[in-house]
Recover the amino acids of this structure.
């Protein structure tokens, strides 16, 4: 994990000092960095290819973010590389403060106080059709397909994942379509994700019977409106597979393993073509309500991105 953090930092520094794309795209039309590293909104990827690189160029972006909700905090950092405005490779590291899970120790587990869950996400996205800007005067969206390989280091929470039958690695596949109505300053994105991740993978992947172990398709939607050339507002909705609910019901946990959809409303500001800041209000529903008294997990998200 430490080596990965160092690699992210060094990769960003080395590439930013090299001969990178500086012509740039229209501000904010390429999206920002999602928590999994791919370009898009904060919660979901778009079909756009990140960084400032356009056709025939290579680009790089780096981001850091922090989400704080009622009982949990999540910090992320990552880099993304773009080639010819067609291929995007991303690498992100998530650090989740799972301290409330110590409540499970009353059931015989031995979760350490202050335990954190760390997850690495390696992503690849390829544009397969359309161009969000060049096709803005037609109904043709930009379409991309992507894959995200996720690996979790759960520390002392690993026995909990074993009890749930959740694996510590998994692969998400997705297809995204992004339509930019440039004349109306409106961007709409729809993503279908094929996944068996629990809470995006932070609670492992899949479940023992009678929970759901196989992956399923779940929808994600983003809408953004450009108030000006460098300020956008919008909202996101990300459905979740809810794999663990049936297992919890069958083991006298009631709704204690319920997983709800994630939602946000956001404002993104790009003071120049190399940087952007995103602030969002989050509603993540219930996250392991069996250990947080079914409280709704709401709060804020703040992210900064630098792109070249």
């Amino acid at each position: 994990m430490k080596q990965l953090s160092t690699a992210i930092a060094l990769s960003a520094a080395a590439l930013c000092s090299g001969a990178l794309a500086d012509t740039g795209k229209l501000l904010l039309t390429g999206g920002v960095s999602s928590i999994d590293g791919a370009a898009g909104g904060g919660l979901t990827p778009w079909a756009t290819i990140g960084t400032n690189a356009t056709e025939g160029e290579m680009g790089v972006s780096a981001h850091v973010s922090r989400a704080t909700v009622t009982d949990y905090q999540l910090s992320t950092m990552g880099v993304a590389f773009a080639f010819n405005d067609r291929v995007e490779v991303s690498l992100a590291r998530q650090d989740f403060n799972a301290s409330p899970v110590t409540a499970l120790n009353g059931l015989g587990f031995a979760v350490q106080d202050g335990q954190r869950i760390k997850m690495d996400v390696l992503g690849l996205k390829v544009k397969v059709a359309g161009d969000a800007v060049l096709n803005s005067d037609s109904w043709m969206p930009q379409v991309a397909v992507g894959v995200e390989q996720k690996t979790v280091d759960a520390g002392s929470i690993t026995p909990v994942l074993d009890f749930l039958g959740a694996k510590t690695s998994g692969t998400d596949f997705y297809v995204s379509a992004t339509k930019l109505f440039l004349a109306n300053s409106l961007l709409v994105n729809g993503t279908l994700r094929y996944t068996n991740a629990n809470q995006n993978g932070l609670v492992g992947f899949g479940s023992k019977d009678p929970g759901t172990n196989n992956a399923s398709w779940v929808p994600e939607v983003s809408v953004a409106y450009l108030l000006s050339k460098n300020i956008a507002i919008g909202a996101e909705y990300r459905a979740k597979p809810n794999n663990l609910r049936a297992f919890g019901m069958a083991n006298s946990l009631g709704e204690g393993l319920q997983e709800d959809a994630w939602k946000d409303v956001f404002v993104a500001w790009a003071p120049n073509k190399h940087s952007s800041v995103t602030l969002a209000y989050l509603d993540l529903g219930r996250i392991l309500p069996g250990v947080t008294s079914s409280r709704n997990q709401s709060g804020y998200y703040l992210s900064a991105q630098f792109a070249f």
